[in-house]
Amino acid sequence: MFIKPQNIFVFLMLCYTSLCMAQTTPVVESENKKVDQLFYYFNNGSETKAYREAHKSLRTFKSNKAITNTNLLLAYYHNKYVAIDSSIYYTHQALNSKKNVNDSLGVRLTILSYQLLALNNKNKGLYQESKKWHIKGAELSEKHNETNLYYTHLHGLASTYVTLGKTEEALELFEKCIKFSKDDELILGSYINLGSIYSSLSKYEISNAYLQKAKEICEKDTHKKQALVNVIINIGDNYLGKGETDKALSAFYEAKEISNDTRSYNLELIILGKIGTVLFNEERNNEALLIFSNTLIKAVNLGNLDIEMNSYLMLEKLSLRKGDDRSAYNYGKYYYQIKDSIENSQRQQEINNLEVKFKTLEKEKTIKVLQIENLNKSLNIKNKDADIEKYKLQEAIIAKQNENQVLQLQNGVEKRKNEIALLKEKEALKAVELDREKTIKYIVLVAFFILLIPIVGLLVIYYQKLQAQSLLNLKEKEINEQQVISLKKDQELKLIKASVRGQDQERKKIAQEMHDSVGGNLAAIKLQFSQLYNQPDKLKLIYSQLDDTYEQVRNLSHNLLPKKIRENDFVFLIKEYIHTVEEASEITINLSFYDEEKINTLSKILQNELFSIFQELATNTLKYAKANTIDIQLDFLNECLFFVYEDDGIGFDLSIITLGIGLTNIKNRVETYNGILHIDSKPNRGTNINIEIPLKA
Length: 697
Description:
Elements lengths: L4 H18 L3 H18 L3 H12 L5 H17 L3 H14 L6 H21 L2 H17 L3 H18 L2 H14 L3 H17 L3 H17 L4 H17 L3 H17 L3 H17 L3 H18 L2 H18 L2 H53 L6 H147 L8 H22 L2 H5 L2 H15 L3 E7 L1 H5 L3 H22 L3 E9 L2 E8 L13 H12 L3 E6 L5 E8 L3
Parallel strand pairs: 1-2
Antiparallel strand pairs: 2-3, 3-5, 4-5
InterPro entries: HATPase_C_sf, HATPase_dom, His_kinase_dom, Sensor_HK_TwoCompSys, Sig_transdc_His_kin_sub3_dim/P, TPR-like_helical_dom_sf, TPR_rpt
Protein name: histidine kinase
EC number: 2.7.13.3
């Protein structure tokens, strides 16, 4: 909660002053002035003096109002110094002494007492009890139209719900405080609590929205610098939750600057710890080392043992990460020393608290004895003997109760002393264990270096052998590649020679056919033309011989086409050829034909030319392109043939490389049919070839 105790004390002072105005007797006025002085001491930094004077005055006060206010002051004193049981005791004393104070100001004091009981039980870990007192305070506030105190209890109840894990109930109450409360402190606290709740639910955008509102409130009021620092720290934590490390660091540095300006040195230490942890997680070791070294110095100067202990722990981790075992050991030793010191201090604090309780009980015992003595003096003479017996009985009961309480406290003190002794023994054992571990580490380190030298030597020799073997493998690879290239060239040469022999045989066959058939027919036709003037009736014979010669030339041209072109559909031949190429290589070939029936009806001569183009392009890709995929598309549309060939190989630069024999032959074949050839290729971008051949006569 963000309700300052000082504000409650000011309100309590106003209540008390108003109560005092209603009292007119000299005794009451004197007691009112004394209580006024006690509150002045408490609110102006003299808490100890107020505490001592309150105990003295409590024995002499007669007015219920003075007793009520003094008990409540003692309750707030113990609450401030976290003596929870004592604070609860004096709060109940204030409620008991207020029985006859039933006006509106008395009701307000009751509501404040309920709030104090709720806070103390929450600090004690009794959250259900805390919830009960907040609910009672809220009901009483609502009944008597104490609006501000009503929302104060609602705010406290919401904080208790957060602790109990009832997030939805807490969200509803905080929203209600923002909407209806007029107290800036409550609204600011609600914004911050809502931001914290949504952050725990990983709803960082909603959390940041509430925190930004809280930030705006703090920035308008220069007295809320510490609250502003806390808001910015929460915003930084949200950025960390979202993984936005740079924004988180920016927020932390902003909070550090404000805390430094306001001299909030403890907050600055917390921020430095967060910055250092972020840098450590990002392995920015040098920056983290600088941050934690600076934090350690400031923590030592301020006497903040928790931050000092955490700084030693992080410095130990950084040293281990850097391999500096000596520094890590020293930092670890200091870490455990401070940790043990804190634990011992806590035990000692518990013993001191027990002693304070013991002294408090002793003082209360003295007060009860004095009250009994005063009661004894005011007894009637007639009833003196009976009253004395009653007094003795009461005194015996009180003595027995005090004796039991003293025994319990003494047992507690002895128990804490035994625990401290055991902790000291454990600390000594830890020191011995650390020294032993240090010796073992040094022995292991020396043995490691002794073994490391021959291992390094062997690794160097092995590395040299690997280099020699690698060079040998490279040489063998180059020789194998040269042999493969040579074999390919020999194979290509054999294929060329075989092709030339085949062409020579075809030429001889064509020449023989032309000489024997076509040549004889043409000679006969020539002879017939020479005798035409003398024998005109031979014209029909000449026409017949011309038809016969035409058929012979036609049959001869058909006989020149490959048998597979003559006897198979063109699309089937292309698919069969592509299947053979795919089996012989690791290339994937994608085919597309439209319309297949029309393509199969193309002239066999054109089919033969297209098949040769297919073969030439596929051969070039296999030899030079180093491609993984080939895409081929052949379309017969609008009396025009469109042929697209594309691969994803290494390509070539058309401005540098001239067309080879294969591409030149393709170009000549296309131009024979009045077609268009377009080649698009660039290094590392593959090759794209487009051919368009018109089929109209």
